[in-house]
Design the sequence.
């Protein structure tokens, strides 16, 4: 089974985010980056399928040069090889343009299964995987939490709203978008990190893929969110904050 | 047609409540742009729902019906709706940002060479053209977006962002349409819930919810002690349940419980929208977070900006001695 995992590198979770002066993206100075968390789960799902059914796991990303360590990390966890679709400002592509570039680079691989995260932590469009399926003419399922792949048929467990689930079958090849919690994530071992150094990262220049950007979504401006409520912030030492809060909860909000 | 096509959502004859928020958004955009709004309902035997929604100020209601649509599938919904969009040629297609819309709406938009503008939280006019807002970076920043692409353009709206509207007894005409048969590759099985629940968070008067800020399973005891001092149930954000530190029945949010206690104390929770939709109905929200810019403070009544490892034991002690 040949499994392709689409992985995006995103700003690290606890970083302080500031809009760049252009208002069109972040100020990337002093910013850390990491593998998009749902994509780590997609990779884990891919590695477990390879352990069960044999085959190969290929990781693909569309990103600038700084995305390479994220690919190395996936290789260290056990992916066999990687494809780096290189572009300087990938955030300027809208979801369909992103999916077109990924589709163009990945179609020649003819994977049996494509796994993506269900959503990126930065742009959060929640659609790249579904778009890939449409562009490649493949069936798809979203919010997938478990995968069986016997005899060319996929049977997946998907999450519905409010604690409900559903099983769904479809023929392979297909695209699945993976929900977090599918299983525990593995760490890269020292051996894995060593091996990753000699694994292939094939670099493809995004501009060479013949995808002409069509007019679509345009980001006009990034800014801090507005508050819906006027939060009362409590000041002082931890003990003072706690005492003030207890007082407020008792006599102002009357919930104690 | 020039106008707006609203895609509603129903399941076995019951509305998804977000249909009415999306209806609110569609009517707001329709008023702003002076465009009529058509609502469509997808399924089989949706006549009663069509009659119900025809009481809203709509230009028309379309019951898009066939046996193949009785059970939702991505292929079935995409091809039926693509057929309808092709027939109607609307300027905008609006859907609620439900799990189901996540599943088919990007595919529908791509069939027309468009990206979906997903998860919109607001809109305004900039001259003649609409500008839409959505959250980026898990709610830490907001972004304005516009469409450069010609019609049709596709938008989904986030839960809790647009007010559901009241019916106006306008009596919109209802039209039934049958889409052509399509190849459906997904074979769905009936929906199910995991084993019975031991706690019912929806009935809790007070909840202390713990998030990734707690760092390690062993630290959960801090939140447990606070919950005990408050007479509260313990809830959690998704990553805590994903890690197996607490059972999934304690997860609050779009894929877990929707709760509305008198008091909700969010400890080390950032306030991502999927969590917030599950708890913003709480009467009083307290947030404890070391990051003053955490989105949870946008909806908190009381905020403590501090390291939770200092703030939580102090609060527990204050409650115990009061
Ligand atoms: C389709 C879908 C469905 C989802 N369903 C749900 C759902 O039902 N429920 C849910 O919760 N999530 C859900 N999520 C995930 C959601 O998007 C967020 O990823 C999640 O809620 C984040 O959890 P968190 O706030 O605990 O972690 P983080 O976002 O990592 O936040 C941790 C917070 O802790 C603070 N912190 C860290 N250390 C300290 C300290 N020492 N003291 C004080 N504060 C500290 C940080 O400042 C940060 O704000 C869903 C996502 C998707 C895409
Ligand atoms: N630039 C990218 N490179 C590789 N994969 C991506 C990229 N953008 C999105 N994806 C994949 O698509 C998923 C959904 O992203 P999004 O549609 O941006 O929410 C992510 O979890 C990734 O698996």
Sequence:
């Amino acid at each position: 089974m040949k499994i392709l995992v689409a992985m995006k590198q995103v700003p690290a979770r606890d970083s302080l985010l500031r809009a760049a002066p252009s208002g069109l993206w972040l100020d990337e100075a002093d910013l850390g980056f990491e593998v998009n968390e749902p994509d780590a789960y997609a990779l884990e799902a891919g590695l477990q399928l390879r352990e069960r059914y044999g085959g190969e796991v290929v990781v693909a990303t569309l990103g600038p040069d700084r995305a390479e360590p994220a690919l190395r990390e996936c290789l260290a966890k056990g992916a066999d090889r990687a494809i780096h679709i290189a572009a300087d400002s990938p955030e300027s592509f809208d979801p369909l343009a992103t999916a077109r570039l990924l589709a163009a680079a990945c179609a020649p691989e003819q994977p049996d299964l494509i796994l993506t995260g269900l959503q990126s932590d930065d742009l959060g469009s929640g659609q790249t995987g579904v778009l890939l399926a449409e562009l490649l003419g493949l069936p798809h399922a979203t919010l997938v939490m478990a995968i069986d792949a016997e005899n060319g048929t996929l049977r997946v467990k998907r999450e519905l709203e409010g604690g409900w689930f559903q099983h769904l079958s479809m023929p392979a090849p297909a695209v699945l978008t993976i929900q977090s919690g599918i299983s525990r994530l593995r760490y890269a071992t020292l051996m894995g990190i060593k091996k990753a150094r000699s694994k292939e990262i094939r670099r493809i220049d995004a501009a060479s893929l013949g995808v002409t950007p069509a007019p679509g979504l345009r980001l006009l401006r990034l800014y801090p969110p507005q508050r819906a409520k006027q939060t009362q912030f409590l000041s002082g030492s931890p003990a003072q904050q706690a005492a003030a809060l207890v007082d407020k909860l008792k006599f102002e909000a009357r919930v104690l | 047609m020039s106008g707006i096509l609203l895609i509603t959502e129903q399941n076995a004859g019951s509305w998804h409540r977000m249909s009415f928020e999306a209806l609110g958004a569609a009517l707001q955009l329709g008023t702003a742009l002076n465009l009529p709004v058509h609502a469509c309902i997808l399924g089989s035997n949706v006549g009663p729902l069509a009659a119900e929604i025809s009481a809203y100020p709509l230009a028309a209601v379309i019951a898009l019906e066939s046996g193949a649509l009785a059970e939702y599938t991505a292929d079935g919904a995409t091809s039926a709706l693509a057929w309808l969009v092709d027939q109607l040629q609307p300027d905008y297609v609006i859907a609620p940002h439900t799990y189901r819309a996540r599943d088919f709406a990007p595919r529908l938009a791509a069939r027309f060479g468009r990206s979906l503008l997903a998860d919109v939280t607001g809109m305004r006019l900039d001259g003649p053209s609409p500008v839409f807002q959505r959250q980026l970076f898990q709610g830490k920043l907001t972004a304005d977006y516009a469409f450069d692409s010609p019609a049709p353009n596709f938008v989904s709206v986030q839960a809790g962002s647009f007010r559901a509207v009241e019916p106006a007894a306008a009596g919109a005409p209802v039209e039934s349409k049958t889409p052509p048969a399509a190849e459906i590759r997904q074979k769905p099985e009936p929906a199910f819930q995991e084993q019975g629940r031991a706690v019912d968070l929806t009935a809790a008067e007070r909840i202390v919810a713990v998030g990734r800020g707690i760092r390690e399973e062993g630290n959960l005891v801090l939140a447990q002690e606070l919950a005990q001092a408050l007479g509260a149930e313990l809830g959690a954000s998704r990553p805590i349940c994903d890690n197996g530190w607490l059972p999934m029945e304690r997860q609050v949010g779009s894929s877990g419980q929707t709760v509305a206690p008198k008091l909700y104390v969010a400890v080390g929770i950032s306030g991502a929208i999927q969590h917030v939709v599950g708890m913003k109905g709480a009467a009083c929200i307290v947030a404890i977070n070391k990051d003053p810019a955490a989105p949870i403070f946008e909806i908190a009544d009381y905020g403590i900006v501090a390291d939770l490892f200092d703030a939580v034991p102090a609060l527990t002690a204050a409650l115990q001695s009061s």
